[in-house]
Amino acid sequence: MFSQVNIQNSPTTVADQVGHTPLLNLRKIAAAHGVPSTVALYAKAEWFNPSGSVKDRPALSIILAAERSGQLQPGMTLLDSTSGNMGIAYAMLGAARGYQVKLTIPANASPERIAILKAYGAELILTDPLEGSDGAIVKARQIAAADPTVFYANQYDNPANWQAHYHGTAIEIWEQTRAQITHFTTGLGTSGTFVGTTRRLKQLNSEIVCISSQPDTPFHGLEGWKHMASAMTPAIYDEAAGDGNIDVRTEDAYALARELARTEGVFTGISGAGSVLGALAVARDLHHGVVVTLLPDNGFKYLSERFWQEG
Amino acid sequence: MTTIRIPTPLRTYTDGQTTVNVTGSSVTAVLNDLTQQYPALKNHLFDGDELRSFVNVYVNKEDIRALNGAATAVSEEDALMIVPSIAGGA
What we know:
The complex is a heterodimer of chains A (311) and B (90). Chain A is an alpha/beta fold and 311 residues long. Helix content of chain A is 38%, strand content 17%. Chain A has helices spanning 27-32, 56-69, 85-97, 111-119, 132-146, 159-176, 192-204, 250-264, 270-284; strands spanning 23-25, 39-45, 77-81, 100-106, 123-127, 151-152, 183-187, 209-215, 244-248, 289-295. In chain A, helix 8 crosses helix 9 (270-284). The model of chain A has no long low-confidence stretch (mean pLDDT 94). Chain B has one domain (2-83): Beta-grasp domain (Ubiquitin-like (UB roll), Roll), CATH 3.10.20. Chain B is 17% helix and 26% strand. Chain B contains two helices and seven strands; from the N terminus they run ββααβββββ. Chain B is globular. In chain B, strands 2-1-7-5-6 form a five-stranded mixed sheet, with helices on one face. A two-stranded antiparallel sheet of chain B has the order 3-4. In chain B, a hairpin with a 2-residue loop joins strand 5 and strand 6. The A-B interface holds A 54-55, 81-86, 106, 108-109, 129-136, 186-190, 192-194, 215, 217-227, 230-231, 250-251, 254, 271, 294, 296, 306-307, 310 and B 5-10, 12, 44-45, 47, 52-56, 65, 81-90.
């Protein structure tokens, strides 16, 4: 009785809605932190992606690449390790495209993340919280080695991760700033966002300066970020891709997350606040420029953290 | 003997030890003993005299913030854990 309707100009699947996120002007936070008025500070609001984080980009890119190569076929199980957001992206896209999703995740992942993963129907294998995300990586490798029928997506080593940002994020930033971007900075986790975006931006204009941010110490509270010197280094990480690195202290990111919510109306997660800290450090030293950073997700998945009530 | 399990990122500061034996009758006392044995840990765990806000300490799988905080009593049979936040991400 009802036939398919041809909807014009509207995304019709969740995958269609990945990317094309807004670029927010952080004018108030920039002014409050001593950035000259001749320097603009912008941030990609990645929680506008359908599962709520930047990870929809690499998850979709990895799935599409595996479908093209035949590694991932209907009815198969996608396996990976995750600290939360990548798993949520896989779980959403897997449900939409007909794949089982099996994830290794440290048992101390926030309860909000675990609840979301279960809502999408993902199978969770909780790993030792003391081993962190590296423990989840080791467990996923063991499962992949023992079960050749699964597709091991391997976000830390899969080039389709950084390619999502090379083909997507970087182009969006270039177009949204009308080619005026002078500096790009964001935090390192798998490093896919930084490496992919940086490679493309530098091809578009070799003068663009790209700076990564990392936790200042191996033991930190910057969920989603890696201290590269002490953690298992992702194969896709290319230290030579950028122009430098800024160390971020956890407590400073917590304070800025609160400030962003209260003064700018931007309710970002911890890694987003850390990225803005890095961007502020870059922007303060400029006389003119357009500095762009990226907010991987919003604060809803961190509401159980105590720091929102502090300060 | 009370034990504290050390998370991977902090083992650099405990000569690679995954578990450290400690003495003391409260969480504060055993953490003080831990940082006396391995002084390089102190700045990673404490901001002044306070535990840093992202440092989670568990006594027998219970978060001390749900118990009696740093004053939580500890016995020789208890096993403590210092749990980090999660890295990975973007």
